[in-house]
Amino acid sequence: MAENNNKLEQNQKEQPMTFLGRSLLTGFIGGIFWSLIGLFMYYFNFSEISPKFLLVTSWTKASWTNGWLGNLVTVILAGILSIVIAYVYLLLFKKINTMWMGVIYGVLLWVIIFYVVQPMFANIPTITSLHSHTIISTLSLFLLYGTFIGYSISYDYHDSQLGEVK
Predict the structure, then answer these.
(1) Which residues 6+ apart lie within 8 Å of 39 measured at CB?
(2) CA 58 to chain centre
(3) What transmembrane ranges does the database entry give (predicted)?
(4) Phi-psi region for residue 15, left (φ > 0), alpha (ψ -120 to 50) or beta?
(5) Is the model's pLDDT at 3 over the cut of 60?
(6) Which residues have a Cβ under 8 Å from the Cβ of 30 and sit 6 or more positions away?
């Protein structure tokens, strides 16, 4: 009897993830990966601004934010926030199957953070007081992040549409 149950379990196929689930997972992984790259850029002085400034030290001045725990919390928060960013892309631009929409989305995110949201965070310097290497490196980071999120979601959307047609 137990042998029949094992055969049945082995024959069961795993349900594939939905398009929404894959898109949100893409956002989470993208947030983790690109925030780690942002931390790397900060530690090696490519940027004066750490992702930690936006996500952790903007709302707490606790001593734990300066150590590895602050970095870990930053990366997790970036992953969670990136789920929302991926969902917005999914709602607005999923049908645009080009890399360039992701590039534009990344630049748009950079403009929102450094021009619109920046006045709310006292610990982030204004764009005019940043060095050119910080501006170029953070803009490049957001450009790549937007490309990752945008093209992954658009490609998956069009691939799933083709799969439904076949």
Answers:
(1) 50, 51, 52, 71, 74, 75
(2) 19
(3) 20-44, 68-92, 99-118, 130-151
(4) beta
(5) no
(6) 82, 86, 145, 148, 149, 152
